[in-house]
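Reply to thread "Modeling small-molecule complexes from scratch"

Following up on the discussion above, here's a worked example others can learn from. I took a protein sequence and the SMILES for adenosine-5'-triphosphate and predicted the complex. Inputs first:
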Amino acid sequence: MPAPPSAEPAASPFIQIRGLHKSFDSQKVLQGIDLDISRGETLVLVGPSGEGKSVLLKHIIGLLQPDAGSIQFDGTSLCGLSERQLAPLRRRIGYLFQNAALFDSLTVAQNVAFPLIEAGIKNPAEIKSRVQEALEVVELDAHTEKMPINLSGGMRKRVGIARAIVGRPEIILYDEPTAGLDPIVTDVIDHLIKRLQKRYHVTSVVITHDIASVFKIADRIVMLKNGIVYFNGSPDQLRHSPDTFIQDFIAGRSGMTS
Amino acid sequence: MDDSSRGLISTLGRAVLNFINYFGQLGILLGEGFESLVKTKPRLHLMMEQIVRIGFGSQVVVIVTGAFTGAVFTAQSYFKFRDFGIESTVGSIVSVSLFRELGPVLTGLMVAGRVGAAMAAEIGTMKVSEQIDALRAMGVHPVDYLAMPRFFAMTISMPLLIAEAVAFGLGASWFVAVLGFGIPSAWFWMHTIDHTNLEDLSYAMIKGLVFGMLIVVISCHQGLSTTNGAVGVGQSTTRAVVFSSLALLVTNFFLTLLLNYIFPMGTIT
Ligand SMILES: Nc1ncnc2c1ncn2[C@@H]1O[C@H](COP(=O)(O)OP(=O)(O)OP(=O)(O)O)[C@@H](O)[C@H]1O
Ligand SMILES: [Mg+2]
């Protein structure tokens, strides 16, 4: 008997990751990640440093190709696509690099305008107002003409956030958006992530080490450990997990005494 | 077979494989460039920016190179030609050499040093600081954005730079021959123009184009394949200059044979 047609294609996850493996030389980083991300949710990715969170995020946008396993983006498999085939998918994604990765030959305003110009927007007034708007959101509208090299680390990060959101992408991948920011600006960014979700139904994947942020913004939390998904559940489930590693991780306990 | 000869063979084998692999990578880059040429619109403002940096920025270097090469070559030729009493024909040998070899090769080497190094360093720094990944993440192909504008700019600039080097070389030659050694100006020009023809100009232009492409492809490839942080950028920069200079000199020899086949020397006087 043929299988019944799938119930409703709309319910298939926005991003579907299956059996993702990735090694660098002899170092096994990802060892079988299975993960679904639904449209409109805010998923927070946590886990010990160096466990492959950034590597996983780079796979979602096709910057890295898996050794084994599959990644589907809105029903399209990313594996084996050429750079040119990936381009239209990537324009639907906003990406904040862990180090911001600003173009150091362009000013702050030109960096933020970059995705708009690449999207084919020609009207200079529209570009200017949208750049201004994105920079206001991250509270940097007074620094539009500076070069990235002359910014502080936290400012650079915020320019990176402005550049990631300015094109109104469907999904935004944030690699540690609040690392190095002061507590007030951290709160501003946390609210920004939620506001984009509420107003524009933006899907967000956020890597963070800031546990307070995690509970403020997460609809769902995924913890990576030893190359696999160690925990996947709601903030409440995480808080009440009986797992001692998770409890130590949340509380920031290393077990050391000085 | 003893251990040391086995080691030698495996080292040699690896070197040959690396060499083939390198050409494969250059071929892939060329293929991507061709795809970009066919499928995407050129980025004119980036191209203009590169023309300013490559073409305009290389003026002084090229003028000095051309002028002093022309001057010293004139002096040396004059000393020898004087023995035969044909010193007034010195301009002809200087002109042909400048057009066919000295102009294109020396300009090419200077541009490889100046522009090739800058390309590899700039693109390499972008690579190690994830700016290339940032381009890719925004759906922009690094070859479209970085390599093609440089390629077009180089293709336009190189023939002009070579023409400039040759012009200043001939000017310096006149200066040395006429003002320095007292050869009558009319004779100097008569011999020079008589013995320089369109084929010589074709040599200069074709060589210029080929050398320009070699420099761009090798330097952009080095930049784009940089790894390993600041040390890697240094390595890429050095390699871009060394590889493109060597490639230029080797290619020059074979290109000369090929061009001589197309435009045989000596049939037209
Ligand atoms: N391009 C690469 N080449 C070699 N190894 C890499 C590369 N990228 C990442 N790695 C390795 O993969 C591992 C995971 O790196 P990743 O950057 O994903 O960690 P992370 O979980 O994001 O850590 P952090 O929280 O500190 O940012 C690290 O051990 C790193 O050394
Ligand atoms: Mg990381």
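What I'd highlight from this example: Residues 88 and 119 of chain A are 10 Å apart (CA to CA). The mean pLDDT of chain A is 89. Questions welcome below.
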